[in-house]
């Protein structure tokens, strides 16, 4: 385990960090430092402990909000995959019932199927992170 010296609100801390995870730890430190400095700079709260608690609550709120969004995206993706599977099964059934000479009549569906698949791919792509509202910083 590697030891890193970091600074949060001009105070030094020695933190243990697993090998190869230094960048993640430094990103987390930067996030916490920015959250705490923002609360301090708003001028309403002075105590380091109170600032830390509010920053922790804001970070936890953001994390829970992301988890809710992830859950909703997962449910939407599952529904879209089920819909795509049902449409695919229906197409297979129609093709199986179509006589070989009638196969040309199904060609008009190919662009529509491609369009549906493209929309499904777009829906399953990760959404860009949106800034969440933060908790109030009043005492």
TrEMBL record:
Keyword entries, A-Z: Cell cycle, Cell division, Coiled coil, Cytoplasm, Septation
Biological processes, Gene Ontology terms: cell division
Keyword Cell division in annotation: yes
Predominant cellular place of this UniProt entry's protein: cytoplasm
Pfam families attached to this UniProt entry: ZapA (PF05164)
Keyword Translocase: no
Subcellular locations according to the entry: Cytoplasm
Coiled-coil residue spans: 63-97
Role this protein plays: Activator of cell division through the inhibition of FtsZ GTPase activity, therefore promoting FtsZ assembly into bundles of protofilaments necessary for the formation of the division Z ring. It is recruited early at mid-cell but it is not essential for cell division.
Subunit structure: Homodimer. Interacts with FtsZ.
Name of the featured protein: Cell division protein ZapA
Record organism: Comamonas squillarum
């Amino acid at each position: 385990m590697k030891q890193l010296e970091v600074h949060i609100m001009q105070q030094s801390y020695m933190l243990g960090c697993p090998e190869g995870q230094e960048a993640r730890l430094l990103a987390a430190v930067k996030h916490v430092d920015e959250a705490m400095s923002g609360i301090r700079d708003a001028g309403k709260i002075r105590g380091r402990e109170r600032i830390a608690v509010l920053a922790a609550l804001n970070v936890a709120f953001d994390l829970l909000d992301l988890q809710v969004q992830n859950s909703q995206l997962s449910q939407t993706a599952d529904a879209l995959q089920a819909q795509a599977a049902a449409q695919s099964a229906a197409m297979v059934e129609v093709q199986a019932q179509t006589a070989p000479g009638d196969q040309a009549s199904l060609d008009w569906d190919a662009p529509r199927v491609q369009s549906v698949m493209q929309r499904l791919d777009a829906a399953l792509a990760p959404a860009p992170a949106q800034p969440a509202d933060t908790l109030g910083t009043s005492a």
